[in-house]
Every structure is written in structure tokens, then in C-alpha cells.
């Protein structure tokens, strides 16, 4: 268990480092395309001990994520869990089955055994040839180099040299010294890379999947309370819906008295009593 948690913490640190190195530019999609992805809605009522929150989920934007949330809701998975991480002017996080027990130290570590992939981006035309744009360098870093280092204890020396240079430079310029094909060959990356556009920003009132790194979604989710959004999380957490009624309840929950781990104090938690998916 210790080894597993240590690797988990390392993964989170590496992903955060990638965000810091390449900035937190928000990627936008055209309004018409966004509307199409949000045209179909699944309505959900979440009854909590602090009040009721109503949401609309977007199955065309995040089909796997919405299907997972709906299934867990219908199975009663979320009942008797509580929002275990609340940070004013940021978000409230819940959905962890570990919060059903009396042990607080494992809150935030639970979820189903199986994890599923992110649904953050629309992938467009393939990327090939020289790396000129910073966005392309960022894609190579996050989708090729970082996964390669996570999976290989003894990486290729030339790739390691690029990695070290990026860390030292604090930008993506060292990556531009080689082509897309060079990185794919050196790392053994399977498949092609495509230009990516974030489907939806991590904005005020949206419900997003919590994770411990790329493609580690389970049951935990968070609702954003920061008025101008959390654009540094764009593309890192799947957005799959938004609150349509009850943001006052969400904001009430974010201000609950909490400990140094942002876990609401005993007797002050906002328990999820029932999640109902409307037909």
C-alpha cells in the first residue's frame, strides 16, 4: 500500500510540474461546437444534508464519464458519503466511499477498483514533423515524455537529456530540437498524436472528475466555486456537467468549518443522502 501511494503522489507531482512548466493557457472551442456537445442533457438531483443541488450532465461531451456517474448514482454508491474536501473560492469534492467509515485519514483515497480514461479534449488532425508551436511541445511533454518516464525506470539517455533540459529551462524550447517522429520512436509511443482542443473549461458551477493523474477517473468529483473558474485545470479534469440550481448550497458547503486537510470537521459534514437521475 505504501509503494502504491508513493507512486500516486509522484504521479500527481509530475502532472502538476507539467502544468507549471508550460503555463496554464486556456484552450477554447468555437461556440457552435460547444453547444452541440451540450445539446443533450441528463438531469440529476443530489439531495445533501445541507440542501439540494440540481445538475445537468452532458453525455455527448463526456459519454463514459456521464454513464459512470449515472450508474453509480442509480446503484446508491454515493449515498452516505460526504464532501471530504472543501476549499472556499475553489471547489467542493466528494464521491469517495471511504467517507462512509469513521476513519478520516483515508478520505480522498477511495473509489472503484477500475479506472477510466479522461474525456477532456477533441482530437483533430495528426501532428507530424517539426515542433514549432509551444502547444505542440506541451502535447509532447504531457502525452509522450511524462508517460514514458512514469513507465520506464531506465529511460533512453537522449530523451532523458531533453527532460533535464526542459526542467532547467522551465519551458518547452528544448523539446523543439527534435521532430514528432523522433519522440514517438525513442519512447515507443503507440498511435498518433493529434491537435487537441479542450471541450469545456473548468468553470464556475461545473462538475468535474477528480483524479490522481491522467486516465485515473473513478467515482470522485468536484464542483467549482471559483467565480472566474480554474483554468489551470483545463484539460486535466473531465468536465461533464454543471449546477443548474443550488449553487447557494454548494457555496454553503465550501465554507463549512474544516481541518488542515480541508476535510469538514466531524458534525459539520455535508452528507449526500440520495442522487436521483431523472428520466
What does this structure look like?
The protein is α+β, with helices and mostly antiparallel strands and 279 residues long. The chain folds into 2 domains: 42-119 and 200-277, Cyclophilin (Beta Barrel), CATH 2.40.100; 121-196, no CATH class. Helices cover 31% and strands 19% of the residues. Strands 3-4-8-7-9-2-1-10 form an 8-stranded antiparallel β-sheet. The protein has a two-stranded antiparallel sheet with strand order 5-6. A hairpin with a 3-residue loop joins strand 3 and strand 4 (91-94). Helix 1 (2-22) runs antiparallel to helix 4 (134-151) and helix 4 runs parallel beside helix 6 (180-187). The chain is elongated. The model is unreliable at 1-13 and 24-30 (pLDDT under 50).
Could you provide a short overview of the structure?
With 279 residues, the chain is of the alpha+beta class. The chain contains seven helices and ten strands. It folds into two domains: 42-119 and 200-277, Cyclophilin-like (Cyclophilin, Beta Barrel), CATH 2.40.100.10; 121-196, no CATH class.
